[in-house]
Each structure stands twice: as C-alpha cells, then as structure tokens.
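Researcher: Here's my situation. A collaborator sent me these components and asked whether they could plausibly form a single complex. I don't have experimental data yet, so a predicted model of the whole assembly would be a useful starting point for our discussion.
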Amino acid sequence: MRISPDEWVFFSYGAFELNATISFTWLVMLLIAGASWIVTRNLSDTEEISPFQNFLEVLVTGLADQIQDVSRQEPGRYLPFVGTLFVFIAVSNLLSVVPGYAAPTGSLSTTTALALCVFVAVPLYGVASRGVIGYLKQYLRPTPFMLPFTVISELSRTIALAVRLYGNVMSGAMIAGILISITPFFFPVVMQLLGLITGFIQAYIFAVLAMVYIASATHAHEVKTARADQSSKES
Amino acid sequence: MEINWVTVAAQIVNFLVLVWLLKRFLYGPVTRAMERRQKRVRDRLQEAESMRGKAEQERDALKAERDALDRKREEMLSEARAAADKLRHELEKQTRESVDAERAAWFARLSGDRQEVLSDIRRRAGEEFFAIARAAFRDLADDRLEARMIAAFAEKLRALPEETLEKLKSAVRRETSSAQIESAFPLEAEDREAIELALKDILQADVSADYVQREDLIAGIRLRLDSQVVEWGLDSYLDELEERLGTALSDAGVAEAKKAAE
C-alpha cells in the first residue's frame, strides 16, 4: 500500500521521475484550465448567460468576496494567487471519488510546494505594498526581542500549512483504503463522502490562511493609506 | 513520509503555471465580462433615467397644454353663457315690450268700447228715464212732463246772468239771425207760447223762433241765438250716471284683468 503518490512512478529519466503526483497535477491543471478556456471563449456580457459562465462568475465573485472579507482590501491583485490555491486544492481533493485517482494534495511534496509558494508570496506582497524597509520593520515590532519568535512563527506556520493539508488528504485516502479491506461495502462510501467534505474544507482553510498571512504582511500599510485617504477627503 | 524535492520543484512550477493559466483564462475574462455587464446595466439605467426625464418633461408639457385647453374651453363656455344670457334678456325685453304694446292696444280698445257703451247707455237711460218720468208725471200729477220741462227752461232763462242777457239782447237788436229752439220732443202750441213769453219777458222784445226737433238731445231744450246757447236737460244727471257707470266698469275691468293674470 502506497502512502504517497510520489512513490507511484510511471517513468524516470535520471533524477527526474514522472510520478503520479505530477501526472495527476497535470490532469487537474488540464481540467481546470481547459474548462475555463472553453467556457470563457464565448463570454456573454448581456443578461443572458450560460449555466457554465454563471457557475464561473459565482466562483470568481465568491472568491473575491471572501478575499475582501478576510483582507479588507481590494481583492484584485490577490485573486489569481489565492483563488488558484483554492481551486487547485478543491478540484484535486474532489476528484478523489474517481477510482484509480490519487489526489496530488495527498503528497507531502505538493503541499510543501504550495506552502513554499505562500512562504514566498507573503514577503513579496508585503514588499510590494510597503517597500523592503517597511516590510522588514514589521519583524522588529513591537520590540526587536520579538524577532526570533516572528521568524520561527513564519517558518512553523509554513510547515503547518503543508502538513495540515497533507495529513488531512492522506488520512482520508488511508482511512478509505483501510475500511475497504475491513468492511468492504457500505461504510467506505460514507467515509469517502466525508472525505469530499474534508477535502473541500481543507481547500478553503488553506486559501483563507494564505490570505490571512498575506493580509497581515500588507495590512498596516493599507490601513495607513486608508487613513490618509480619509483625512485628505475630509480636508 | 518523504519529501521528493524534485517533485516539489515541479509542483511549484506547475502551480505557477496554473496561476498564470487561470489568470489568463478564468479570472481575467470573467472579471472583464462582469465589468462589461455592469457598465451595460449602468448605461441602460442611465438611459432609462434620461428617458424618464424626457418622458416627465413631455408629460409636464402635455399637462400644461391640457390645462391651457381646459382654460380656453372654460373661457369659451363662459362667453357662450354670457351671450346666451344677453340673448335671453333681449328676447325677454322684446317679449315684454310686445306684450305691453298689445296690452296697451287692448286697453285702448277696451276704453273705446267702454266709451261707446257708456254713451249708448247714457242715450238709452235718458230716453227711458224720460219715458218713465213722463208716464209717472201723467199718472201722479195729471200733468205733462214736457210742460214741467218748459217751465224749468223758462225759469232758467229768467235766471240767466246779466252778461249773457246783454249778449242775447244785442243779438236780438241786430236782428241778424232768428232764435232757434231745439227740443227732443215735439212742442205743443202752449209750450211754444210759454217759451216765447219767457223770451219776451227777458229780452223785452218780440222774438220769433224756429222750432226744430232733434233726437240726439234726449230730454232737453236748447235755445240758439246768434252764437249764444242756453240749454236745459237731463245732461247733468246723465253725466253723473255716466261717471258712476264708468267707475263701476273700470273697477270690474281691473278685477277681471287681475283674475286673468293669476
């Protein structure tokens, strides 16, 4: 029994192995990007819209609203990154009802890669909105003594992100596998359904946490500019 | 539970590619489509707003026009009413005038009739009275009424005022005309004698007289000498009778007219 889809290798060339993680990631990417492309080829800007376009609009506006709620900022520049995190993780997890499929998010390598992306994206967004010095000053607040703890917190939350998602998805698949061998008929189906809910929730949690980290890196600046805007409007 | 770093690197690349793909095929187009739709809706709302404004303007203009028409109609109606009133007054006036004229003509006719009736009555009453009186005198006093009337006439001649007497006397002296005695009844010889005696008595001269019978005198005797006239008759009594009858007739006429008006 394979714990990680990394171990399911189709093809290898030197150090590179084409394992199930990468293959199914490509499949998921193809599905998402292909479906988006097909639907958005003929977008209608009238009141008459196709159900697929309607679904995509609901998805995009839902994501944007969620980002707005969490960050209290204009969602436009966060939408591609955070939205893709959610969509990719959600589709990866939901597809696990398909027999023979192994969710790429069940691999620690994938979750680590996503967590690293967040780890890099946080300072990038922070620097983009507050400047290098402004962003780095944040580590010295409220006192410079807090610097080690802040750094540790940055690292540990990245690891937590990766391990949380991996653990949830992997355990869901594991439980299903184990239950199939013990009680093969009814019970695994229930657990599988439960796994769908878990997978969806994990996608939401991952995206929201990423947004919270990014927002905390950009927030102070935004608040300051918001205040400046307000005072300039009042004057 | 191992991390395959090659796979991690590949997944990072995969994820970034997916971000780019979705930005290119999902977020961008969908967001733009929604913005276009919102703009479209905004435009249409603005258009509707402007159209409503235009419609309101038009409505106000129409309302003003209708009000003006109403006012005009009201004016025309009042003018027509005034004209109708004027016409009615005119017609009423005309009618009243024609009625008044008719009534006046009727009254004139009526009074003419009355006059005729009165004179007729006067003549008949005189005749009848004369006949009755004559009969009564004959029966009661064994006397003629004519003789009493001649006596009364002679009395009147004797009682003439000086002025008239003088005039009569001068007329006799000039002998330009003879005296003429007019009476309603034929005079007997003794009557003529009595009159001549009376004339001789007052004029102190012999006077020959012509005797003429006149129906229109009713009961009376008249002396014509030159331009002088001395007369005795029932005229004064008959005048009174006529006056009384006239009053009675006009009272009756007024009452009748009132009844007719009611």
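Model: Some features of this prediction you could bring to your collaborator: The longest helix of chain A spans residues 187-234. The radius of gyration of chain A is 21 Å.
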